[in-house]
Write a structure and sequence with these properties.
Radius of gyration: 29 Å
Organism: Heterorhabditis bacteriophora
Number of helices: 7
Structural class: mainly alpha
InterPro entries: Mos1_HTH, RNaseH_sf, Transposase-MT_Hybrid
Protein name: HTH_48 domain-containing protein
Strand order of the largest sheet: 1-2
Shape: elongated
GO biological process, one term: replication fork processing
Number of strands: 4
GO molecular function, one term: DNA topoisomerase binding
Order of helices and strands: HHHHHHEEHEE
Mean pLDDT: 82
Oligomer: single chain
Distance between the termini: 65 Å
C-alpha cells in the first residue's frame, strides 16, 4: 500500500513539473485535498514522496507486562492474556512478536534458537546416531502424525 502512495505522488510530482494546478492533477488520481497538500509541499521545496513519521496512538501496555505474564504462566494463550489486560488480541500479538516469542506445542517459546539450543540439538543427534549403530532402535519405531509407537517383533 505504501508503494501505491509513492506511485501516486510520483504522478502528482509529474503534473507539478508540467505546470498543472492541483485540481487538474487530482482529477483522475486522488482526492482534491491530498493533491493540494502535495502541491503545497512541492512548492515549499519538499520533493520527498514517502510518508512522514507520525506518532499514532500510544500503547497502554508495555512489553515487560506481557513478558511477565507469559513467564508466570507459559500456557496462557494470546486471547487469555488479552482478556486479563483488557486489550485487543492484535495488540498482544504485536507485543509478543517484539519480545521474540511464538506459540508452539501449547506454550510460548523463543522464535530464534540460542547457541545453547543449537549445540544441544547437535549433541542429541550425535548421541542418537551413535546409539542407533549399536542398537538399531529406529527400526522398531512407527510414527503417525504426532504419535510414536514402539514395535517389537515376536
Amino acid at each position: 500500500m505504501a508503494t501505491d502512495k509513492v506511485y501516486l505522488r510520483h504522478c502528482i510530482l509529474y503534473d507539478f513539473q508540467q505546470r498543472r494546478n492541483a485540481t487538474e492533477a487530482c482529477r483522475n488520481l486522488v482526492k482534491d485535498r491530498t493533491c493540494r497538500i502535495c502541491f503545497e509541499n512541492f512548492g515549499a521545496g519538499d520533493f520527498d514522496l514517502n510518508d512522514k513519521p507520525r506518532s499514532g496512538r500510544p500503547s497502554l501496555i508495555d512489553d515487560d507486562i506481557v513478558k511477565t505474564m507469559i513467564e508466570q504462566g507459559l500456557f496462557l494463550t494470546r486471547s487469555e492474556i488479552a482478556k486479563k489486560l483488557y486489550s485487543a488480541q492484535q495488540t498482544i500479538s504485536d507485543h509478543i512478536r517484539k519480545i521474540g516469542l511464538m506459540w508452539k506445542y501449547s506454550r510460548w517459546v523463543p522464535h530464534e534458537l540460542s547457541e545453547k539450543n543449537l549445540l544441544n540439538r547437535v549433541v542429541m543427534c550425535t548421541s542418537l546416531l551413535a546409539w542407533s549403530k549399536n542398537e538399531p532402535f529406529l527400526d522398531r519405531i512407527i510414527t503417525g502424525d504426532e504419535k510414536w509407537i514402539t514395535y517389537k517383533k515376536s
